[in-house]
Design a protein that fits this description.
four-stranded antiparallel β-sheet; 4 strands; alpha+beta; P-loop_NTPase
C-alpha cells in the first residue's frame, strides 16, 4: 500500500432527502492507522455520513475512494 494514499477519501459528499439537504460538500480523508472523530448536534448528518461510508446509503453527490478504488462501485 502506498503510504501517501488515503485509506478512505470522501470528496464533496452530499445527501438530499426529498428537498431537505442532509449533507453538503463533505470532504475528508483517513490515512492508515489514523482515527477521526465525528461530532455535532443531533440531526446534523453524522449517522447519514456513516451510513454512506458503510454503503447502506448512496450519496446524491460526490465520490468516495477506498484504498484508491471507487468505493461506490466496489459493492455494485
Amino acid at each position: 500500500m502506498n503510504n501517501n494514499r488515503a485509506l478512505l477519501c470522501l470528496e464533496k459528499i452530499g445527501f438530499q432527502l426529498d428537498s431537505k439537504i442532509i449533507l453538503d460538500n463533505v470532504t475528508f480523508s483517513l490515512q492508515p492507522s489514523e482515527f477521526k472523530l465525528i461530532t455535532g448536534p443531533s440531526g446534523c448528518g453524522k449517522s447519514t455520513l456513516l451510513k454512506i461510508i458503510a454503503s447502506l446509503l448512496s450519496p446524491t453527490s460526490g465520490t468516495l475512494f477506498f484504498d484508491g478504488k471507487d468505493y461506490l462501485t466496489l459493492f455494485s
